[in-house]
Amino acid sequence: MTSPHSPYDVLIVGAGMTGSCLALALGQSPKLRIALVEANPPNLEDVPPDTYDLRVSAITRASENIFKNLGTWQEIAAQRISPFREMHVWDGTGAGEIHFDSAEIGEPCLGHIIENRVIQGALLKQCEGLDNIDLYAPAHPSGIIQDDRKIYLQLEGGHCLEARLLIGADGANSKIRQWMGISSRGWDYQQKGVVATVQTEKPHQETAWQCFLPQGPLAFLPLDDPYHCSIVWSTTPDEASDLLALGEQEFATALAAAFEYRLGAIQAVSPRAAFPLRLRHAETYTKPRLALVGDAAHTIHPLAGQGVNLGLLDATVLAEVLMTAKKRKKDLGALATLRRFERWRKGDNFATQLVMDGFKRLFGNTLFPVRLIRNLGLTATDAATPIKCLIMRRASGLTGDLPLIAKPKSIDPGEYAG
């Protein structure tokens, strides 16, 4: 085992959106040395103007503030962002419907739909510009070794990286979580999310659209072109397989019908893909010298698009906790330090999981009394403007126990970095 590099303060495994955001946030402190380890070499080229990434994220206003305060938003906006100012949600088995409008809370939008590769690329480009962040890609972790003061990440090929703290940001199937011996609880939804980019007959009106069908929700998310949307169609694994097997025109016809032709006919469809939907929550986020963030710690049903936003809040809360510990000359990898992060984030993540799971189960129930109650509930909530405004502010990340960097104001980098 060789260790050709001097010790780091923090090692982050996983350079996706959450891991890259965490590295960049920590990198604001020149006193910290960070290593970012990624198995798959990231593509940092600007996105082609004529194709869209199949995976997109609904970025909240809190996440927008994070990117602005880290200096990344300008790079993201220079490529491609799609604000959504309104949201229509309805029950496909009844007459219940609710309409959210950002104007009702005095905001320019509810959030932005942004391709995952745009976000990841912008974050990593900025990481590359900081002298205190080293990116190892491709690099394949093969194990961890730890003692009382240090932790070592072994890489295939015999090299080893040393740090005071190792962070797993390596996704739902996290090797770091497995090597830490942390179990996770949850369940499979017995659903898959079919994703594609589609061209619609009618413009999307900078509106996010979601129809709850018995098999699962169908969402149309607006892209920067008025006639293009990213769709997520949650359904049974068997139906997902059938939808993937359809020809383009057959799929377009089935999609438009399921969506009740709200945006007219579907005129073009990109290649499609599907991914399984699961709820998982790690029993603990922390151990001495180890922490988990993002999907490595928790996964959620995508019906409200909150997954990546929870991960970005994990990243920035952990960065704030570690920078505070650094200023106070505390051990970054001590459990007492890391537990503050877990107490801050775990309850909020769990509550969001439960709410999304409740919505999924409520709208998946086909019993007539349940359908009647939920349709009446949608209609009543739509008429109750104060309640709608509370929902919009919370879902948009405008309220809650936010870290400093996620708040809607510019910050002094010195104040954040310490």
TrEMBL record:
Task: State the superkingdom.
Answer: Bacteria
Keyword terms, alphabetized: FAD, Flavoprotein, Monooxygenase, Oxidoreductase, Ubiquinone
Task: Please give the biological process terms from Gene Ontology that the record holds.
Answer: ubiquinone biosynthetic process
Pinpoint the FAD-binding domain residues.
8-326
Q: Which cofactors does this gene product need?
A: FAD
Query: Pathway, per Swiss-Prot/TrEMBL?
Result: Cofactor biosynthesis; ubiquinone biosynthesis
Query: Its GO CC terms?
Result: ubiquinone biosynthesis complex
Q: Which Gene3D superfamilies match?
A: FAD/NAD(P)-binding domain
Any single Pfam family the record assigns to this protein = FAD_binding_3
Key word Transmembrane present: no
Which InterPro entries does the record cross-reference, listed alphabetically? FAD-bd, FAD/NAD-bd_sf, Ubi_Hdrlase_CS, UbiH/COQ6, UbiH/COQ6_monooxygenase
What GO molecular functions are on record for this protein? FAD binding; monooxygenase activity; oxidoreductase activity, acting on paired donors, with incorporation or reduction of molecular oxygen
On subunit structure and binding partners, the annotation says:
Component of the Ubi complex metabolon, which regroups five ubiquinone biosynthesis proteins (UbiE, UbiF, UbiG, UbiH and UbiI) and two accessory factors (UbiK and the lipid-binding protein UbiJ).
Name the protein family: Belongs to the UbiH/COQ6 family.
Q: What protein am I looking at?
A: Ubiquinone biosynthesis protein UbiH
What is the organism field in this record? Nitrosococcus wardiae
